[in-house]
Amino acid sequence: MNILHVDDEPDIREIVKLALEMGGDTIVDSVPSGEAALDRIAAAAPDLVLLDVMMPGMSGPELKTRMNGCAAMRSIPVIFMTAAARAETKAELMALDARGVLEKPFDPMALSADVHAMMG
């Protein structure tokens, strides 16, 4: 599975990459912003976008809304990652047609299983 991970925090990008690539069946490409993600998705559509909610510039929900408005990107699954995981926040994110919402801090050892479970 090819995953594009979008997060403004370099340490989190590194941990996610290590955690998801441990099993050998996943390749993670990381970018620090929603703007960079749009360029990367347009160049090579990933199998999944793992998307931070709160980022400077374009937020995760704003990026997902842009993806939903583009026929070529609409069908790419998105899983949000957020530290603000209140029930109403999760409901708002799921209303954007997300596959799921992962809470930060996450367990790196369980991340791959959690992502695969949300992908069905």
UniProtKB/TrEMBL annotation:
> Keywords, A to Z?
Phosphoprotein
Q: Which residues carry this modification: 4-aspartylphosphate?
A: 52
InterPro entries for this protein:
Bact_response_regulator (IPR050595), CheY-like_superfamily (IPR011006), Sig_transdc_resp-reg_receiver (IPR001789)
Q: Which PANTHER family match?
A: RESPONSE REGULATORY DOMAIN-CONTAINING PROTEIN, STRESS RESPONSE REGULATOR PROTEIN 1
Keyword Phosphoprotein, does the record have it? yes
SMART domains, sorted: REC
PROSITE patterns given in the database record:
RESPONSE_REGULATORY
Protein's name in the database: Response regulator
Ranges for domain Response regulatory come to 2-119
Q: What's a Pfam family this protein contains?
A: Response_reg
From which residue to which does any coiled coil extend? none
Please report the organism this UniProt entry assigns to the protein: Jannaschia ovalis
Taxonomy, superkingdom: Bacteria
